[in-house]
Recover the amino acids of this structure.
């Protein structure tokens, strides 16, 4: 018989700091609000491959995100893997009102019509069908089946220990 998990013996901030020891890539997820058609977008570092057949990826969103209900209701979204030169874009989509995140940016549509950034400096992008959602603690896990993707041989933007790094192994930009 399996035993239940035991309570954590460390505070949440310590756990967050420990997780920060693992460097991750940085992505921006875009779509259109299913009710209003307004652009939606946010910076996400919790992105991973799931399956090659069929091609699937996952990302997570906190339950406190204002856009959570919209992303749960969407059919499709585009995940943009940011390149090392896109720190400003990552910061822009990390906070502030949705309409300000898109102000002055050129937009495009992926092959199935999903709203995406026209920025050609992304290392890769994935147009995904929103196939599964799973509640997990204080986040929702979104699993998307990849319908279209594109990639370029560009260095990715890396997030490590609470800040961005321009290239793998370089010093972080700042230690806020």
């Amino acid at each position: 018989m399996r035993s239940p998990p035991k309570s954590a013996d460390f505070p949440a901030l310590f756990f967050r700091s420990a997780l920060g020891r693992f460097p991750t890539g940085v992505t921006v997820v875009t779509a259109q609000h299913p009710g209003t058609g307004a652009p939606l977008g946010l910076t996400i570092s919790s992105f991973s491959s799931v399956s090659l057949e069929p091609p699937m990826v996952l990302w997570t969103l906190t339950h406190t995100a204002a856009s959570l209900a919209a992303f749960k209701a969407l059919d499709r979204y585009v995940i943009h893997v940011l390149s090392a030169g896109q720190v400003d874009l990552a910061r822009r989509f990390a906070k502030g009102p949705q309409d300000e995140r898109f102000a002055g940016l050129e937009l495009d549509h992926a092959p199935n019509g999903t709203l995406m950034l026209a920025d050609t400096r992304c290392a890769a992008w994935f147009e995904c069908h929103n196939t599964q959602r799973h509640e997990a603690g204080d986040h929702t896990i979104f699993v998307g089946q990849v319908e279209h993707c594109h990639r370029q041989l560009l260095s990715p933007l890396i997030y490590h220990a609470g800040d961005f790094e321009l290239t793998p192994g370089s010093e972080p930009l700042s230690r806020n």
